[in-house]
Amino acid sequence: MSALLEVEGLQTAYGSSQVLFGLSFAIQQGEVATLLGRNGMGKTTTVRSILGLTPAMLGTVRFRGERIEALAPDRIARLGLAVVPEGRQIFPNLSVLENLLAFAANRHGSTNPWTLDGVLALFPRLAERRRNMGNQLSGGEQQMLAIGRALMTNPHLLILDEATEGLAPLVREEIWRCLDTLRAQGQTILVIDKYVQRLVKLANHHTLIERGQVVWQGNSVELAAQPELWQRYIGV
């Protein structure tokens, strides 16, 4: 059976500065996968290339069996990819409810789609702040809102870029709890984060990259057994 997402030989550059050098990995349906590495190693560029925001020079990206590397970002999103971007990028002048409803869709006919009530149940704090504007929320609340907004599109694949960066420990734990819940529900997820101790408990498969190239791939048991990899490639 083919993977939900297959990235093969991805090469991407910003002008004359090449960032990715033949990156390859795959994510299976229902799997939680990670993309790990130090800052500046190409993680966000990989996400941007998958989403069509920074088109690849070479290589292929297949999603649900369809090649998407040449498609426009809006068309890729409509195929069922959703991203929680680094920096959250919620709409500051819209309320929590308006942010959540702005892109609500069930294009793929899910029998149990995410709804407004479902997202507010997942994040009770958002339910309490539902009338507040985006710029009136704390950083943690904004991150919850960004995740909820992505879920409202009912994606096949949810991508989280630095999902817990800069959050207070208690709020960070709430985000991990949310991801555990999504995993248990069968949501396919790609996570970029630095907290390897939590990721080895959450994820099935891990890809480590350095300078735009894959340097290691394996499962959580293998990664947990090799802390030297953490020091060498992630710096924790």
TrEMBL record:
Q: Which domain of life is it from?
A: Bacteria
Xref: PROSITE patterns = ABC_TRANSPORTER_1, ABC_TRANSPORTER_2
Q: Which InterPro entries does the protein's record reference? A: AAA+_ATPase, ABC_transporter-like_ATP-bd, ABC_transporter-like_CS, BCAA_Transport_ATP-bd_LivF, P-loop_NTPase
Keywords per UniProt: Amino-acid transport, ATP-binding, Cell membrane, Membrane, Nucleotide-binding, Transport
Q: Which SUPFAM superfamilies match?
A: P-loop containing nucleoside triphosphate hydrolases
Annotated signal sequence is none
The ABC transporter domain sits at 5-236
Q: What does the entry give for GO biological process? A: L-amino acid transport
> Is Magnesium among this UniProt entry's keywords?
no
Q: Does the keyword Methyltransferase apply?
A: no
Which Pfam families does the entry link to?
ABC_tran
GO molecular function, a single term:
branched-chain amino acid transmembrane transporter activity
Report the family membership. Belongs to the ABC transporter superfamily.
Q: What is this protein called?
A: ABC transporter ATP-binding protein
